[in-house]
Amino acid sequence: MRRKVEERRGNLVTIEQKNKQSSEQFRSLRSNIHFASFNKSIKTLVITSPSPGDGKTMTASNLAMVFSQEGKRVLLVDADLRKPSVHYLFGLSNQYGLCNHLIGQKDIHSIITNVYPNLEIITSGLTPPNSPELLGSKQMDEFISEVREEYDLVIFDTPPILAVTDATLVANQCDGTLLVVRVNKNEVKDVAKVKEQLNLAGANILGAILNGKKQMKKNDHYYYGN
Fold it and tell me: How many helices (H) and strands (E) does the chain have?
C-alpha cells in the first residue's frame, strides 16, 4: 500500500520533482495557456484524452499545481464520474464530491478540500448510474457558473472521449479544452475522431499535449501544449 501511495505521488512531478525538466514542461504549458487566453479569458478548462491510460489525470493535477504555485486560486474538479482517480493521486477520501452536489445532497463548500496553498479539490463522490444526464444538467451548468466566479481557474478532469460522451458535455460549457495524447498508444485516426467530436460539441480546443515522449535526458518526459 505504501508503495502504491509513493507511485501515485510520483505522478505529481510539480511537487516531488519541482526543479526537474518534467516540471518545467508544465510551467511552459501554463505559459502557453496564458497566451491562448490573450483574446478570451480562460477560467474553466477541460482536460480529456482519447482513451484510458493516456495521462489526463496526471496532466490535470500537475497543471492545477503549477497555476496555484503562480499565485492563482485554483480548483481541480474530478468530473470523471465513472472511473475517478484524482482522490487516489492526492490521497483524499471520495465519500462525497461533485455527484453528491449535483443530486442535491451536499452544498459546494462542504465538498471542497484544500490540499496546498491556492489549490482546492472537489472529488467525484458517489458513482451515479446516469453520469451524462448529470454532467449535462442545469445543476452542472449552475455549478460551473458558481465556481467560475470564485476561482481564477477551474480545471475539470473528464473521462476519455472515445469511451463515453461525458467529456463533450462538460467541454461545451467551459472556456477551453486540452487533449492529452500518449506517444505510441493513440493512433492518428483516433485523435482526429476526438477532435471532430469536440468540434461538434462546440468545444474551444486550445491544443494537444504529447505525453510520454522521451527527452534526451534520461528519465525525463516531454509534455507539449500549443
Answer: 10, 8
What is the number of domains present in the chain? 1
Q: What is the pTM of this model?
A: 0.88
Domain that residue 172 falls in: 2-224
* Residues 170, 135 contacting (CB under 8 angstroms): yes
Which CATH number do you get for residue 54? Answer: 3.40.50.300
φ, ψ at 220 (rounded to 5°) = -95, 155
* Chain centre distance of CA 72: 16
Tell me the pLDDT tens digit for each residue of 205-226.
999 998 876 655 544 444 444 3
The pLDDT tens digits for 141-165 are: 999 999 999 999 999 999 999 989 9
How far, in Å, are 15, 17, 68, 191, 192 from residue 208 at the CA level? Answer: 23, 23, 21, 10, 11
Q: In Å, how far are 47, 55, 139 from 151, measured between CA atoms?
A: 17, 25, 18
* Closest among 55, 20, 11 to 211, alpha carbons compared: 55
